[in-house]
Amino acid sequence: MIRIENIHLPFTRPQSELLPHIIMHLSVQEADILEWKISKKSTDARKKKRIDFVYSVDIKTSLSFDHLASIPLPKGWRIKKIDPFKFSIPKFKSQPLHHPPIIVGTGPCGLFCGLILAEAGLHPVLIERGKCVPDRIQDVNLLMEHGRLNPESNIQFGEGGAGTFSDGKLYTLVNDPRTHYVFDQLVQSGAPKEILYDAKPHIGTDKLQIVVSALKEKIVALGGEIRFNTKLTDCIIHDGHIQSIEVNHGQRLPSEILILAIGHSARDTFEMLFRNQLKMEAKAFSAGLRIEHLQSRIQKSQYGNFCNDPRLPSARYKMAVHLPSDRGAYTFCMCPGGFVVPAASEPGGLVTNGMSLYAQEGVNANSALLVNVTPQDFGHHPLAGLEFQRTWEQRAYSLGGGDFTAPVQLLGDFLKNRVSKKFRSVFPSYQPDTQFVNLLDCLPDFISRNIGLSIPLFDQKLKGFSHPDAILTGVETRSSSPVRIVRDETYQSNVKGVFPAGEGAGYAGGIVSSALDGMKIAEQILTLF
User: Are residues 73 and 117 in the same domain?
Assistant: First the structure.
């Protein structure tokens, strides 16, 4: 296979013109192209008078690479050989296990770990403290409509993990050929085919709910088992090896292999594991606020006079700045046309996140606006970061009125240190309700101060980011896990047979990297045991 990169076409030209465009510039015949597919598509909007789609295309041809490489190509085009990667599941060489592997959590890490183990014939048991998607949706709606939280079934806990109620972003900086397997499985499970080549792929929470259920059914069809409403409450360890686990404070399940794909919000589980002397360490994370703008303003800033053209994707941004304080501030999990949602998992605490549907047709754009936080800020005890998060989530809950009403402030008023009086051009998407406060009261000084310093710098990168009507909503504290469960070169913790995995254990950051880590754990198990 041969890949041709950096092929620019004006976005106004249909994708059907791509292959004729390539054939013309390669000076070849259509019959010379045996197969072809788009491997990547992105949008180049740096020049507002001409916005291009930029393609990478893989072709199989009857012509030699040397011949094609000798052809003068248009400026910027690059041509190279590629070796298509096909992931193969390692063979399980040992005798059958005495007990099936137990995977704690059904987020992307747990699901893909379970899928690989099920494909290998190990009949994994996946336990999930939350509910299946249909029941989970009802609980999330109760929180958003009536302020009633179910601590075991919410935006953090349940089938598919926290990502089920998100934008379903799939882009990652991890360069791992297993990514192709992950994307292929997602498409087979109902994700849009465009994720296979979109430079910034997303599924949307509406489609992701279908996808995770289909992945679950595939695991079950391969001999795996999924148990919802099943919470890990204790680990029974003997001579440094896992012997069994306790679920729901009573039932024992024997296990010689335990995969901890618990997610970043399973605080009670972290506390239980710490009591059982699993080695942990405090980890840096980030905290801040959610910011909402009109999506139309983001479109105008990114696309200029083409801002209303339906052929362009929803405009988005991703920015980072280095501040004089030597801290970083950045935008995270930007949701075009999305919603700010209540992502609490504990009574008495309020935390926000972003979510969008596949169509991204909401009025507002939202993003986390974060400042990095380190153990120097909250302490080096392994669980100190959890307490830091909890403290400020409880402060936000109290300021909002104690019923999951979110504290909010207009950006212009935040910068002037005054409580807002009314919304202007931007109205909040958060449910169940909002309350004007001074958000300086629900953030540590170093975070609020650095957010204030970052705003004009972000505005230099994205015109209009500092619009005074933009809405800030508090607080965003769960960008990543504040804990790392230490593991060795075999991916095991200091307790043999226990495999910390994914984002919650501190080894991933998002849907794709979590899925990849789950796959690596499964491969390790297949070769170790």
Answer: no
Please report where in the chains the tokens 């992950």 appear, as a residue: 182
**With contact defined as beta carbons under 8 Å apart, do 493 and 279 qualify?**
yes
Q: 228 and 276 share a domain?
A: yes
> Are both 133 and 266 inside the same structural domain?
yes
Residue 22 CA to residue 32 CA, distance in Å, equals 12
- Both 402 and 505 in one domain: the answer is no
Q: Which domain holds residue 19?
A: 2-81
Distance CA 323, CA 211 (A): 40
CATH number of the domain enclosing 63: 3.30.70.2700
Whole-angstrom Cα distance, residue 247 to residue 249? 5
Name residues whose C-beta falls within 8 Å of residue 56's C-beta, 6 or more positions apart in sequence: 3, 4, 5, 6, 7, 38, 39, 40, 41
β pairing state of 483-485 and 280-282 = antiparallel
Kindly give, in sequence order, each residue whose CB lies less than 8 Å from that of residue 193, ignoring residues fewer than 6 positions away: 187
Sequential DSSP letters for 466-479: T-TT-EEEEEE--S
For the domain that residue 489 is a member of, what is the CATH number? 3.50.50.60
Q: Coil, helix or strand for 39?
A: strand
In a domain, 90, yes or no: no
Instruction: Quote the number of domains for the chain.
Output: 3
pLDDT range class, residue 195, cuts 50, 70, 90: very high
Same domain, 319 and 394: yes
Encoded amino acid at 142, one letter: L
pTM of the model: 0.96
Average pLDDT, the chain: 96
Examine residue 471 and state whether it is found in any structural domain, yes or no: yes
- Amino acid 132 reads C
The residue written with tokens 């896992």 in the block is: 242
Domain end among 436, 452, 476: 476
Dihedral class, residue 506 (left if φ above 0, else alpha if ψ from -120 to 50, else beta): left
Q: For residue 507, which phi and psi values (nearest 5 degrees)?
A: -120, 15
Residues 323-339 have pLDDT tens digits of 998 899 999 999 999 99
Q: What is the 3-state secondary structure of 399-418?
A: HHCCCCCEEEEEHHHHHHCC
Residue 26: which H helix or E strand, with range? Answer: helix 18-26
DSSP codes of every residue in 78-103: EEEE-------PPP--SPPPSS--EE
Residues 16, 37: contact at Cβ < 8 Å? no
Q: Are residues 430 and 500 in the same domain?
A: no
Distance CA 511, CA 525 (A): 21
pLDDT in tens, 135-187: 999 999 999 999 999 999 999 999 999 999 988 999 887 788 899 999 999 99
Lowest model confidence (mean pLDDT) among 58-67, 93-102, 393-402: 93-102
What sign does the CA torsion over 56, 58, 61, 64 have? positive
Do 425 and 507 lie in a common domain?
Answer: no
pLDDT at 442 over 90: yes
Please give, one letter per residue, the 3-state secondary structure of 367-406. Answer: EEEEEEECHHHHCCCCCHHHHHHHHHHHHHHHHHCCCCCE
